Structures are given as structure tokens and as C-alpha cells.
Amino acid sequence: MLEISHLRYDVTAEDGEALGILRDVSLTVGDGKLVVITGPNGGGKTTLARTIMGLNQSTGGTIRWNGADLTGLSITERARAGVSYGFQQPPRFKGLKVRDLLALAAGKDSLTPAEGCQYLTQVGLCADDYIDREVDASLSGGEVKRIEIATILARKAGLMIFDEPEAGIDLWSFAKLTETFETIHKRGESTLLIISHQERIIQLADEIVVIEKGEVAKQGPRDEIFPQIMARTVPGCGYMKEADR
Amino acid sequence: MDKTEWKVLKEIAELEKVPQGAYNFRVNGKLDARSVTANIDIESKADGKPGIDIIVKPGTKGESVHIPVVLSQSGLTDVVYNDFYIGEGADVDIVAGCGIHNTGCETSQHDGIHVFHIGKNARVRYVERHYGEGPGTGERILNPRTEVYLEEGASITMEMTQIRGVDSTKRDTVAVVGAGGECIINEKLLTDGAQFAESNVEIVLEGADATGRVVSRSVAKGTSRQVFHPCMTGKAKCFGHVQCDSIIMDDARIKSIPAIDAQSVDAQLIHEAAIGRIAGDQILKLMTLGLTEQEAEEKILEGFLD
Question: Over pLDDT 90: what percentage of chain A?
């Protein structure tokens, strides 16, 4: 179980004032659940994910995973405790091949062809074409993104966090990807936390969490929250209203 | 050869016993072992200069020549002249390299001067590794000079690697490529501590449809310094590409000066050079896979230089 309690992440603005990027986020995700985090841009979703992984050091509150307190742990320690995170914008590596990255993720010296094929197929890539490619600038954004997701699949961690996995991915691969999330969810071995704005992914969720202005604005079962999100797509721009007056 | 010397040999040529095919082992400035084949002859220089002539008969296919050099005697300066004559249509692997084991306080130095004459349509794969070790305070210096002359349709791929333990190196490589010929140089270099490395590469694309490619990757750590000066000259319809990529760390300094020199309107020449630190995101990504910061850094460097 993932238990986040009163989590804060503050940064200091130029004038010395503390800016709360995450302010008092509390959230509990049960084992084997698929939870979609959604909400407006700049609301703090990615910051929350990065703070769980330890890429940002929280400034208040606690994060517990399977009862263990992660709050003071390093990225490496959290990874070894079973947390994994697929970057929204994954880095590229000159010289590291897809095969190397997947082997590192799987914690092995090398991959069998079957393993390489399995991880890449799940993100809609053919191992024959990709396993020996370098993860460098020769790959497109969508390809790098799918390889990133494959590293999380290879890692088989108890907690898998995906940050906008659909971004930059073509329709066909996207269909494959939602299928993959569904399969992992059905197997129930991992807890999935997916930041997404895609209806297809939201439809897979057990629960939806809406993060807005650094806080949990809504949280609940999909069937309860999803209609509320849809209802809120009402126009009403304050700026234009100002101009009308 | 003793145990230490065999260990050095393993580093530079991946040899644990005498290899198949032709070979010539040079240890502490003297001939240690030699073997020739029906197609590959090795002779000591007739004019008294230190070094050997390696003669590969035309049409020789799939054979290899190993010519490693080991220095384990501190204070020795070894200069050697090796000339290669590769016959028309031959296809061979040449494994060279030098390892220094210095236990003393005096400088050990090896300057290998290699000249390749590669006949029409012949292909050569040349591997050269440089390596230094030993507890002594004496410097380990390697200053190789390599000249390559490629006749029509001839090609060479040169893998030149220096990963550890060489205090100072000044490397000069010159290649002249004939019509339809190809010269590929893959250079890999890592320096640490107060080491210094300078590499000057000059490829002259002389004949029509000649191709040249230099791919140089390096890592500089500590207070080490590196200077690269690859130059590609096109004198005919040709294609040349120079690519230098370096990772800088600690208080190191890297200077990269790629040059392209077109002397024909049909010469197509490109150069790229980049120096940068390891991106923070790369380290963080590998840490999220369970590696420590140090392990992540090692993996990134290993991948970059491999």
C-alpha cells in the first residue's frame, strides 16, 4: 500500500518567499490498484510523482510504501524498495543500447532474446529493430518514450508510476499500451499510478485523483469522479469576462 | 615472458597464449617470439633500425597478425619502426598495441612508428590498444605515429583505444586514401589524474569516391587534459565526416579542433564536435533503476566508450 500523508514540496521564489508546489497532499493507494492522476497543467502531478520517487526531496509530510517510511531515503534506496517511475521526458544516452538499458532495469547482466522481445512488444516495438539501437538522438521522441515505459515493465517493481505515458505515442502503439496496463492491472502484482489526460486510460482506473494547485481536489472511484471532470469542461474565462465589462 | 608481462599482454591484445597465425612479440625492446605463415611473413629490418616488416601476400584472406609490445623494465625508451605491406585483394586483421608495466621511478616510453602500404582492393582491420600500469612513480609515455597509404579500392578500419594508465601520449595519424578507398578511424580515450593526451589525425581523400570517417569519443577526469585535432582534406569527389564527442568531468580540460579542408567542388565534408558533462537526468534515470550514483556514472561512461 502507498500512503502519502500531508506531503509538501516547497521551492523558494526569487524574492525569498516559499512557493508551495505540493501543499498538504494526502493519498492512499491500495495494493494492486490502478489509480489515474489527472488535473490541469501546472497543478503538481509530475512533482507528486517525482517526489514519491525521490527525484524531488519533499519539504514536509511522509511517504510510506508497504509500511516502510520512504521519506528520508535516496532515489536508489526507494528504487530498491520497489518504487519505479517512467519519466515524462526520458533522457537519451549516447552509447547505451536499448538492450543495456532494459538489462539494467531488469537487474541482470544481459537479457535473453525472449525477455527483450517481451518488454518491447508490450510497448509496440519490435525487438529485432530496436534491441541493438542506441538510446540516443537517432530515436524519435515517441520511440524513446516507449523504451522508457519498457524499462518500467522490465523492472517489475511493486509500484509503477507512469508520467503521461501517452505523450508523443502514435495511435496504434497507444492501443497496445492501454492493453499492457490492463494486463498488469489484471495480474494484480503491481500497483499502478498513472498520470494521464487520456480518456482511454482514465477508463482503466479503479480510482481517479484530481490534483489542482498542489492539492488533491477530488478523489474517488472512477464512476463517481469521471462524470464530474467531464461536467467541468464549461467555458468561462475570467480574462474575457474582464474585457466584456 | 613472465606473469606480469602476460597480464599486460592480455589487456592489450586479449591474448592468454600465443595466437594462431602470424605474430611478433616485442618485450623490453627485444624480439621475444615470432611466427610466420605461408601467406604472412615477418622480418626484422635489414638496415639495422629497430622494427619489423610485415608482408602479406596478395589475396590472403581471413588471417591475422598480432604484434604486441610490452615494456616492464623501468627507464626504457623503446622506439620501433614497423612497416606493413598488404598485397592486392588481401583481407586481414592486425592486432597491435602496447602495454607498459612500470615499477620504478624512471620514465618508460614506447614510440611506435607504423607505416601501412595497402594494395588495391585490400581490406585491413587494425586494432590498437594502449595501456599502462604498475606501482612505480615513473611516467608511462606512448607516442605512436601511424601512416596509412590506401591504393584504389583499399580500405582500413582502425580501432584505437587508450583506456587506462598512460601518463602522456601524443598520437599522430595520417592517412592518404586513393580512388574508391575508405579509411575509418574509431578513437576511444580516457584520461584521469594529471594525464595528458593529444591526438592529431589527418585524412587526405585523394582519389575520386574516397571516403573518410573519424569518430572520436573521449572522457577526461581529474585534472587531465586532452587535445584533439582531426583534419579531413578532400581533393576530389569524396565524402568525409569527423565527429568528436567528449565527456568532461572534475577539473579536466578538453580542447577539440576539428578541421575540414575542401580542395574540390565535389568534396563533401562534415564535422561535428561536442563537449559536455554527463547530463544530470541520465544519472537520475539510472538511479531510479536501482543503481547508486557512482554505478550510474560508471555505466554511462562504459556505454559511451564501448
Answer: 81
